[in-house]
Amino acid sequence: QVQLVESGGGLVQAGDSLRLSCAASGRTFSSYVTGWFRQAPGKEREFVAVVNWNDGYTYHANSVKGRFTISRDNAKNTVYLQMNSLKPEDTAVYYCAAKASRRLVTTQREYDYWGQGTQVTVSS
User: Fold this and answer.
1) What confidence score (pLDDT) does residue 47 get?
2) Which end of the chain is less packed: N or C, by CB atoms within 10 Å?
3) CA–CA gap between residue 37 and residue 39 (Å, rounded)
4) CA nearest 81: which of 67, 91, 92?
5) CB 23 within 8 A of CB 5
6) CB within 8 Å of 46: residues ≥ 6 apart
7) Cβ(97)–Cβ(111) under 8 Å?
8) For strand 68-73 and strand 78-83, is the pairing parallel, antiparallel, or unpaired?
9) Using one digit for the tens of pLDDT, what is the confidence trace for 14-66?
10) DSSP string computed for 3-62
């Protein structure tokens, strides 16, 4: 069974940086993609970024492009989300998700495994 555990969230000020981690276990992930999603209060969950474990290809949502960077460490079975120049509108619960796929998946309903989420709060 795949398990995903997020960490690294917290309370920061606008302009600060945070790095989220998603530790994966229970499977060999070479044929998986892992995505980050976020859900702000009163809003639907939205796609943030995705990485292919096999080749390292990535894709980021326009709203975070240039500020956030997704990456993976195969040796540690961990995916990271480096978040720079944080804004109050980035405040949300951030979730990582995994799916067996060769292509980059941005649609949340296609993902099979989810972590419990980590809170990110950005004050102005």
Assistant:
1) 98
2) N
3) 7
4) 67
5) yes
6) 37, 38, 39, 61, 63
7) yes
8) antiparallel
9) 999 999 999 999 988 889 999 999 999 999 999 999 999 999 999 999 999 99
10) EEEEE--EEEETT--EEEEEEEESS--TTEEEEEEEE-TTS--EEEEEEETTT--EEE-T
